[in-house]
Amino acid sequence: MDQDHTVSLFWRLQLVTWPAYGIVSTVGALPYVGLSPHLDSVHSVLVGKAVFSAAGLAASSALRTVYRRVAAQSGAWHRIAPLMIVLSYLAGLLATMCANAARYMVSGRYLDTVWSSFFGGAINASAVFLAWSACYFAIRNYQALEAEKREALRANALAQQAQLEMLRSQVSPHFLFNALNSVHALVLEDPRRAQIAVEELADFLRYSLTQSKVVEVPLAEEVKVLQKYLEIEKIRFEEKLSVSFRIQEQTEHLPVPGFLLHPLMENAIKYGMQTSPMPLQVELTAGREGNSLRLAIANSGRWVGPDEEIFARSGAGLGLKLVQQRLEQAYPGRHELQSHERNGWVESVIVINLAGAGAA
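Now predict its structure.
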């Protein structure tokens, strides 16, 4: 909580609690008017309680100044507690003297009053200020704890963002390496198509740079970037590659880490081209399942295990590892990543629980 807000909250509480105390104590004293020497008339009771409340507001405001200085120097309770008792008694004594003086003046007994009677009720009044002091430190400590929690959450969010940016910086070179391999293959096969691929790659990199500082993007933007990548791949593979998208409209605005799906799409094309009958079919689907977002990239072909030559030759495994790390950073305890082979298709599925993310 910032300093201005804290000061504003203090004065709001002061201007509410002391008048409220004055009203409550006045109502409590009215039934005893005329039954006690210090409650000789309604008028004197009203004046006395009003002055006590005003003096209480002023005295407690002064106490706050002292308490803040003492707490700043040492927050140890063995120093603060005795000070609270002494200052609460002095504040109660001051407020009592002011209230009694005002009450005696309006009742016409001011000149005939014994001086010691001005102190009557100081002990009871000190209990009021002691309670006020205890409440002040309780609120102060609560605000300090809340501030520490906010700072801890902020530090954790910054650390998480830094980790996500680091992981994203690993994804971009990984993608660029694969894209350049595609362009290199085209240079040998068809220089004209290689030129078009370079232009498409330049457009993609230009877009990527504009999004370099954005950790999360709407799913629609992530799909748009994937389409730019696929345009490069289609230039290379032409009719050998067929890609389809099935994106539910209500998922397009949902935020996902930028470049989250690229490694999965790259793997689908890389291994699909080596294990699938042509044309290779690749499908991206996105949909809501209750409170979860389900993202899946499937390709025709078979699963390539880590013991196979294709896996070792391509240096596989990095893409899935990057995706898993980014999910763990962005959605700790709220995600699943699974890959499986079924009926001639290989599918990688990401499920993100949106319940704790404030998603619409």
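The chain has two domains: 3-120, 159-353.
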